[in-house]
Amino acid sequence: MSRKSSRLPSRNTWLFVVAVLLFASGLLSVATGILMDIGDFGPDDRGEWGAAENGLGLVNFGDDLEEVHTWSGYALAGLVLIHLVLNWRWTVGYLRGLRRT
To answer: Of 45, 66, 71, 85, which one has the fewest beta carbons inside 10 Å?
Structure first.
């Protein structure tokens, strides 16, 4: 009985996974940014986050929202770098084509 050797995922699989993660982290970053901007999730009158109730009677979770927003932005930046590395040959070829024009 022959066993298939385990291999790393193909380049296309990596590209797909990175694209899905890029989309998810970008969407999360945009959504949390909008919520922080339009919602009452900022600091209370004393400048403190997270302890005050907002107008809806809900506990303010601005600290958590800000942290999710920050880390999704970091993830987005890292994934952009990974995306560029995975598409390096295409990027270089495209830039060389622009230089010729």
So the answer is: 45
CA 83 to chain centroid, in Å, comes to 13
Contact indicator for 55, 71 with CB cutoff of 8 Å: no
What digits encode the pLDDT tens for the residues 42-97? Answer: 555 665 554 445 454 445 566 788 899 999 999 999 999 999 999 999 999 999 99
User: Would you tell me how many other CB atoms lie within 10 Å of the CB of residue 61?
Assistant: 16
CA 59 vs CA 10, 52, 62: distances in Å: 46, 6, 9
Q: What are phi and psi of 86, to 5 degrees?
A: -65, -25
**Residues sharing a CB contact under 8 Å with residue 20, sequence separation 6 or more, in sequence order:** none
